[in-house]
Every structure is written in C-alpha cells, then in structure tokens.
Amino acid sequence: MKLQVYLSGEIHSDWRDELINEAERLLLPVEFLTPVLNHDASDNVGIKILGEEDNSFWKDHKAAKINAIRIKNSIEKADIVVVKFGDKYKQWNAAFDAGYAAALGKPYIVIHPAEFTHALKEVDAQAMAVAENVEQVLKILEYVTLPE
C-alpha cells in the first residue's frame, strides 16, 4: 500500500526535505505532495498571472485562490495530511489546512513544539497524532505502512 501524504505548514525550514529524505532512506511506501514552497512565487502568483493590484488585499486574494487550487487538490488526494506549525510566523493557512482535512475526514498529524499546545488545542483535538518533531512523524508513517 502506497500512501499519499500532503505536507502542509511552515516553509521557513527544511523539515519537508528531512522527512522526505528519511522516508526514502527507510523505503517507506509513501508519496509526498506539497504546496508551492517558494514564498515569493506563492505570494506573487496572482499578480504574475492575472495582473497587478494597487491594493494588497486583492494581491493576496488572487494568490490565495490560485494556491488553493493546488492545496485543495493535494489534501483531497492525500491519505494523510501532516501539518507543521513553526516558530517564525503564525501559520493561519496551516490551521485552515488542518480544518479542511478534518472536514473531509482525512487523518492528519500535527507537528509543533509543546509551548504551542494551548494555542492549537482545537487543531490538536481533531488530529490523529500530535508530534513534536519529524522523527515522530516518520515513526508513525513507518508503523501505518507496515505490511499486513
């Protein structure tokens, strides 16, 4: 059984590369899906394709809608969604992705440090697991892909 895993959340560290490389090393039967990871490309896709905006609200609105095409399709395709909350910024989009996964009945795993527990209690409450690091997620993926 090969699982599709969507990797949502912060884009300011190499956590995705770490997870993907280790999963490959372990020969886990997993295929990973991601959002666009280039922050500038993601933020500017709307104006690049659909034209400039004087108001930053409409610039962000265009980008969010275009990015949502990829994100929604990936979450819908995924067997598992992994959502990482990082220290640098508040990832409101990651919380939305977790909510969307929950609404679709998709199991999701959250990664965040212990000090985020209170702020993310509702997100954590719907998660199948709350991990503090990538290693724990790898162990979960290894377990759920064990041969029958």
Automatic annotation (TrEMBL):
InterPro entries, per database record: YtoQ_family_protein
Organism of this sequence: Fulvivirga kasyanovii
Annotated Gene3D superfamilies: 3.40.50.450
Name of protein: YtoQ family protein
SUPFAM superfamilies in UniProt: N-(deoxy)ribosyltransferase-like
Taxonomic lineage: Bacteria, Pseudomonadati, Bacteroidota, Cytophagia, Cytophagales
A Pfam family recorded for this sequence: Nuc_deoxyri_tr3
